[in-house]
Amino acid sequence: MKTSGRTVAPVPVALVIHAHPDDEVFATAAWMRELATTGWTVRNVIATGGEAAELAKTRGDVEAARRQRLAKFERALDLLGSDSWEWLDRKSSWLDSAAHPERAVAAADSQLVTSHVRRALAQHKPGVILTVGADGLTGHPDHIAIHHAVRDAVRADGIPSDGAWGARLHANDIAAAKKHVTKELGKKAALGTGRTAGASHTLIDIDAAPVAKLRRQLLDVYSPGLGTKPLTKVAKTNPGDSGFLRAHFDASRWVVERYEAIS
């Protein structure tokens, strides 16, 4: 690109692809923030509105739940320095709702999901892609579907210059989080769905210490107290995977984010 006779390097684009709003906080916040503060344009792509987390508050009104969740998503992206967001499926037809399992990303044709990822890659031409690892970070079927779609898209179209990366916990992280839960909540306590055992292979580490305080704030955006209240209270309000990931953050002292290469 030339401006006034000078050649100006294009601003590199990072594409962050997730199934739901809040996945960016649990999975990719540290690397997103680092990219945003070092001159990258960070664009987020989501497959659903994360409606399930808000349905109790909206008495089952899916559209109201979507609006509430997207407002939180946009607040989180502002804090992370993300440039923009868009739907993976431009018709925003996928939902995160147990009442509509047929509209889950995991229920969609895998080739269709991949085609939407390929379209996004062709449009934005990212220098790096961030998503979740092979087990979806938590084993959530929608997360895994997104991982597979990103994997298949880069296999078809090529890996960006700075790679495609999936956030993942190591098996040691899972063990440490479970130990922390036992310590804080008692031997019979449990958090999470137990759908993931973590990776056994070596992962790369991203320094998450600079965003530790911000990540707590971001978790509170989605669920008040999730990032800042004691785990004993979090366990009562967030007993699922979000509570377990909070236990992981505590056990790891909020200082690391791990990734595996997608190829």
From TrEMBL:
GO terms for molecular function: hydrolase activity, acting on carbon-nitrogen (but not peptide) bonds, in linear amides. The keyword Zinc applies. The keyword Zinc applies. SUPFAM superfamilies: LmbE-like (SSF102588). GO terms for biological process: glycoside metabolic process. Keywords: Zinc. It holds the Pfam family PIG-L. This is GlcNAc-PI de-N-acetylase.
